[in-house]
Amino acid sequence: MKLVADSNVLFTFFWKNSAFREIVAQDVRLVSPQFALDEIDGHKEEIMNKTGINRKEFEEMLKELLQKVSFAHLDEYARFVNPALDAIQDRPQSEKDALGEDVDFLALAMKHDCLLWSNDRLLKKQTKVGVVSTKELIALIEPK
Prior knowledge:
Blueprint: E1 2-5, H1 7-11, H2 19-24, E2 29-33, H3 34-42, H4 44-51, H5 55-68, E3 69-72, H6 74-77, H7 81-88, H8 93-99, H9 103-112, E4 115-117, E5 131-132, H10 134-141
Parallel strand pairs: 1-2, 1-4, 2-3, 4-5
């Protein structure tokens, strides 16, 4: 199963006992926009403080994350950005503003015709891309 993972989902990779690790151990391929990797780097200190890991551990975990997630440059999904913007146009302005940061994730999910892994409730309100939360994803991939 291929999924687009949003930044907040990627941040959970650094948590101890994260569901992220359980999920990627399954037959799941993850892709995310390149800027999500930049966001992780920009929040490096915050991630280390919240998770209690040191810089060396962070760097080692980041290398592991890079093996589990493919990061796409904007030029790979640029033609899907306008359709992704259209997906949020019918939302109230406050929601459009909040969803504006998620357009790249929507566009990338459109390009790959796959689900978006996000725990953002607002993203579920758009109808162009299926959005699955961590809890829903675990239920989907657990052996029956």
